[in-house]
What does this fold into?
Amino acid sequence: MERFGKGSVHGQALVMFVLVAAVLVMVLGLAIDASGAWWKSQRQNDAIELAKESALSRSNEIKFNATDSTRALDEIIYSSLTENLRDLGGSEVSVTSWEVPETKSGSMNRLIGVEVSVTGTYRCVFAQTFGFASVPVKNTITFTINPYSSTEVWRQNSAGHGCKLVKSADKSVGQETYTTLSMASDISDALNDAINKGLAELS
It folds into this structure.
C-alpha cells in the first residue's frame, strides 16, 4: 500500500507539472501576441500623427486650392499615410474633412475639421492555437486646421462643404473612393466635437 501511495503522488505531480507548463506556454504566447499587436498599433498611431503634421505644414496649399480644399486635404493626409505606414495596403482607411460655414467661422477665418481612421489586423502567432487568428488594430485622430487671414478670405462654399476618402482593406492603394459631403450631419460626433472646440478657440 505504501509503494502504491508514492507512485500515485508522483503521477499527480507529473500531471500538475504538465498542466502548469501548458498554462505558462499559453500565457507567454498570448503576451507575445499582445506585444506584437501593441507595436503595430504604435506604428499606426505614429503614421497618423505624421499625416496630421503634414497637413498642418501645408495649410497654404489647402487654403488656396482652386478646386476643393477638403479633397486636397484628404489627399495630403492619405499620401503621408502611404509613405509612412508599411501595411497600409491591407488596412481600412477613412479620411474625412469638413469646412464649417462662413456664418460660423466669420469672413476672415476658415476652419476645417479632420478625422483620420486606420484599421488593420495583427495576425496572431501563438494565439492561433486557442482560436484567435487575428486581432483588429485601430487608431483614430480628430483635429482642425485654421488657414488664417487678416482680410476676408476666399472659400469654395460659404455654406460649408466636405469630402470623405475611403480605402477598403480589400482594395489596393490607388482604388480609393471619394464622397462629397454637403451637410454637417454627414460627419461623426467626434469630428463635430473637434470642430466646435476649434470654433471656440477662434472667438
Remarks:
- The mean pLDDT is 84.
- The CA atoms of residues 162 and 186 lie 9 Å apart.
- The beta strands are 92-99, 112-123, 134-145, 161-167, 177-181.
- The chain is about 45% helix and 20% strand.
